[in-house]
């Protein structure tokens, strides 16, 4: 029965390893860098195009490119904000899990010391207490996961709204371009 508790503790620590959290943070950071690179490529393309256009077409193209660059800038900032918030939540979750594992380890050590010299009834009560504490820790972890999911969903809604706004501005520019001639 003690081996079962030790195996459970090892399984819990493998599920939420720190390296998994770091890998997820690294992926989000790379995504933000990619958007920044796209922004720089668009800036370079704008310089090449501006040399070939007439002055009137040049002004219209600059206006379109400016809005496109603003759009990419908004996307980059949105990804930066999302990455920053996710990183903060992951760090908090990691710290919470480390504290929970440390507490569980200390309680398990204490339990094992007392189990050797206690009666069978004492052992049963201690196991029930430990089981209740494990349930509470699991519930706390689930609540943290739900909070993270809600925050992420909120960012997705904001991101979708910004994309919609960008699309509307782009369509408006296309109309201005078509009818502006």
From TrEMBL:
Keywords for this protein: Coiled coil
Disordered, as annotated region: 25-47
Top-rank taxon, per record: Eukaryota
Residue ranges the record marks as coiled coil: 120-147
Composition bias, Basic and acidic residues: 27-45
Listed name of the protein: Uncharacterized protein
